[in-house]
Amino acid sequence: MAAADSLTKREAYVALNLLPRIGPVRIRRLLDYFSTPQAILAAPETALTKVKGIEHKLATVIRDWESLTDLTLERRRAKEVGARVIIPTDEEYPTPLREAYDHPHVLYIRGALTEADRHAIGIVGSRRITTYGRSTTTKFSRTLASAGYTIVSGLARGVDTLAHEAAIAAGGRTVAVIGSGLGELYPPENRTLAEKIATGHGAVISEFPIDFPPDKRTFPQRNRIVAAWGLGLLVIEAPARSGSLITAEQANGYGRHIFAIPGPIDRPTSEGCNNLIREGSTLVTKPDQILDDLGNLFPTEKHTQTNSPPTPTTNLSPEESLIYEALADGETTQDAIAATTGLTISAVSTTLLRLEMKRLIDQLPGARAARR
Question: How much is the pTM?
Answer without folding.
Answer: 0.78
